[in-house]
Each structure stands twice: as structure tokens, then as C-alpha cells.
From TrEMBL:
It comes from Paenibacillus gansuensis. Its cofactor is Zn(2+). Pfam families: F_bP_aldolase (PF01116). This is Ketose-bisphosphate aldolase. Gene3D superfamilies: Aldolase class I (3.20.20.70). InterPro entries: Aldolase_TIM, Class_II_FBP_aldolase, FBA_II. The lineage of its organism: Bacteria, Bacillati, Bacillota, Bacilli, Bacillales.
């Protein structure tokens, strides 16, 4: 069954990105990974009166044992039970399989990401264009990736190669696909920075921005210093409008629970209510800190006029 009616404050990524660029802040795209943790993300956004994005990737769905519909149902249930009134986006992150995108859109996701970045440029354009055509007909925004964003933990993506985004290719890609947002490879990586230091190639970012007005996305936001994010967001012609944060949330959860190993969604749900609440409070505090001191989106829910 396809979800056709959504709360008025659940918007598309395109709508959220427009407001973020106008307001010179970034919107956090938080990946709770486990369905019970969705509540912590929502509560933090409401507490800070910030727009937010709740996301999960195809690999996370597989790794944690969740379907797109289960994730969406929990998101909408918590939006209602927690009386969330701030602007929200439900986003499907890195996904390579069209059927997963179809399932997510049917379940009520308002934004999807097609990641064909490992393909040659021509093929990436073709695949991304097809997803844009399908999703836009459903009123859903599309994010794509050009260049390759590395990883250290293989949870969101399955490659650790890194290939920086070519600005000229970015212009062509956006012009020929019609994507709403573009994830760019400018030095950050998914996971925990253990060997290399986080960095952002600001010159490359400015070159991309000078050639295309598409909304830009920074993946691998966990562990990046706040000053780097602020500079990336505050580019004169408009910078990063969406920053992905996943690893920091799971690290906060596991540390609060006294655990080192990741769990499946089913395993987390077996915890006692008291133990789970300890973990959720840690995640909520982390999201509040990111919104307040990292993204600059605190208090900007009112910008949307919802």
C-alpha cells in the first residue's frame, strides 16, 4: 500500500534545501540506524526547533535487519506520538537498487538517493536520470553522487576508494539528470577517522558551486571539525545545505550502553526499557549538540512557515 497522505510538516529534501541555503545553515541528515532510535532524533529536533532529515541507507537496512516500510512506519508513528511540529524529511540514503527506491517511495519516504557513483559517468547519468523521472512523478526529491566518497566502516557504502568530484562533470551531471541534490566528494569519508585527518577541499567546493546551483551534500560529517562545516556552509554563492551524520550517533548509543559491537535492530529491541532509554538519551544529546554547535540550524524551523 502506497502512502499518499503525510503530515504537513514532512517535506521534500528540495524544499528543505532551499530554506537551508537561504538561511546559511545546513540541515543534519541523521541516521538512527535502529528503529527505536528514531525517537531520539525527532525529540532533539523538536527541542532545538530545527528542521531535520531522518535517513537510512540500503546497506544499513540490510545490516540492521530493517525494511524501508518498517523504518517509515516507525518514523511516522513517532512523528505523531511525540507531536513533532518542526520540518522533517524522510530520506533514503545511498541506494543502488531501483526496487528499494520504489519500496521506500511507496512507504512514504520524501527523498531518495541513487548512488551509481562507481559507474562510468555516462552510466551514472543514465541511471540517475531514470530515478529522477520516477521519483519526481511521485513528488519525491532525488539526491545522487558524483565522484566517490570513501568509507572506513563499510556500513553505508561498500567501497573505500575516494575520487574527488570534477566540477565540470558536476555541471554536466546535474544538467542531464535533473537531480535535486548532489553529494560531492571533497575530502570527507564515512565512518571513523582513524588514519587520515578529516578535510574539505574548499577550492573544489567553490568551483562546483560556481558551475551549478544544485543543492550540495556533504557525506561523512561525523568527526569533521565544526569550523570546516561552517566554512563549507557559508560559501558566498551558497555552500553545503545537507550534512550526513550517522557514525557519531551509533558511537554515542553504544558507549551509553557499555557496548562495543553493533547490534541488529531486533537485538536492540530486546533491551529493557530502562537500558534503551539510557541509550536514546545519549543519542538525543548528540543530535542536540550537532544542531546547536555544528550545523547552525537551531531555531530555524520557523523559517518554513508551517
Amino acid at each position: 500500500m502506497e502512502i499518499t497522505s503525510k503530515p504537513g510538516n514532512v517535506v521534500t529534501l528540495k524544499q528543505a534545501s532551499v530554506m537551508a541555503e537561504k538561511g546559511k545553515y545546513a540541515i543534519g541528515s541523521f541516521s538512527p540506524r535502529y528503529t527505536p532510535v528514531i525517537r531520539a532524533v525527532l525529540k532533539a529536533a523538536q527541542k532545538t526547533q530545527s528542521p531535520f532529515i531522518c535517513q537510512i541507507s540500503q546497506k544499513e537496512l540490510e545490516r540492521y535487519g530493517i525494511s524501508p516500510r518498517e523504518f517509515a512506519e516507525e518514523f511516522y508513528a513517532q512523528m505523531k506520538s511525540e507531536k513533532i511540529s518542526v520540518p522533517a524529511v524522510l530520506h533514503l540514503d545511498h541506494t543502488k537498487v531501483f526496487s528499494v527506491i520504489e519500496e521506500a517511495i511507496s512507504a512514504g519516504f520524501t527523498s531518495v538517493m541513487i548512488d551509481a557513483s562507481e559507474k562510468p559517468l555516462e552510466e551514472n547519468i543514465q541511471i540517475s536520470r531514470e530515478v529522477v523521472r520516477y521519483a519526481h512523478n511521485k513528488g519525491v526529491s532525488v539526491e545522487a553522487e558524483l565522484g566517490m566518497i570513501g568509507t572506513t566502516d563499510f556500513i553505508e557504502t561498500d567501497h573505500d576508494e575516494e575520487l574527488y568530484t570534477n566540477p565540470e562533470e558536476a555541471k554536466r551531471f546535474v544538467d542531464e539528470t535533473g537531480v535535486d541534490s548532489l553529494a560531492v566528494s571533497v575530502g570527507t569519508a564515512h565512518g571513523v577517522y582513524m588514519v587520515k585527518e578529516p578535510k574539505i577541499d574548499f577550492d573544489r567546493l567553490e568551483a562546483i558551486r560556481s558551475l551549478t546551483p544544485v543543492h550540495l551534500v556533504l557525506h561523512g560529517g561525523s568527526g569533521v571539525p565544526a569550523w570546516m562545516i561552517e566554512r563549507a556552509v557559508q560559501l558566498p554563492e551558497g555552500g553545503i545545505s545537507k550534512v550526513n551524520i550517522a557514525t557519531d550517533l551509533e558511537l554515542a548509543l553504544l558507549e551509553a550502553l557499555g557496548r562495543k559491537e553493533r547490534m541488529t535492530n531486533a537485538e536492540l529491541m530486546k533491551l529493557s526499557p530502562e537500558e534503551l532509554e539510557v541509550g536514546l538519551q545519549a543519542v538525543e544529546a548528540t543530535v542536540v549538540e550537532k544542531i546547536s554547535d555544528f550545523l547552525g540550524s537551531k531555531g530555524h524551523a520557523a523559517d518554513f512557515g508551517l
